[in-house]
Amino acid sequence: MNVCIASFSFHGLIGAGMMDVFGYLESCKYRYHLDAADIWNGLLGRDEKVYLQDDFLKKVKEALAEREMCLANYHADGCHPWDDKPEVRDKNHASALAHLRAAAFLGAKTMRIDAGGKGNAWTNEQFDYIVKRMREYCQIGGDAGFRVGPESHWGPELVPDNMERLARAVDHPAFGILLHIGHWEGAPEEEGDRRLAPWACHTHVDARITRTRLEPAMRTLLDAGYQGYWGVEHHSAKNEYAEVAYQLAEVRRVLEKMRQG
User: 171-188, pLDDT tens digit by residue?
Assistant: First the structure.
């Protein structure tokens, strides 16, 4: 089964200093019996000047290989293309290039870079800049064998109209959306999932969706041809090992039910 756990699911443990990337990989492999990882850059450390260095990334790559795991997704905060300040845009661009290099080195299948912006819409200037950068990042990712794009995550990305417009404008074979299932504004969540499913290259499945409409949501993506991983994501920062186990079991149950039926 193509299932993994978004490492943000353990952000409570990470913040308390009780989990690092190596503990996360150990848990995925031997506690949850998975063969894929879904790494958030917050798991790697607080200073990208440290965790994006070759010597550290080599240790992560070795840890993946030792456990015979692939990297289904690498999602990086803090490198979104648009910021109102030009100097921050330049800083974020340099960071995005470094994270793209890390994703390529680690053998990621997909990578999430948010678009940036505030409110529920992009201006023409913002949109054109984001499209330009996303095309550049997709070219880098495509050359390295992985897909790149934003998540239905925050700001204008939460509006299906915006994400569909962005996908059509970027128009690159390596472009893909990390579809945080049901995480939409300005349209029914089922509609957002359906409309963006054709561009979905990875998913995050939160606790609310797990408890309310997991099977129909997964069927919507599968009917659209989705072949990526189902990334379980938990947000409460409490009882994380058990809560993740519950969500993971539900995703596996639905996949097995669909396989049999």
Answer: 999 999 999 999 999 999
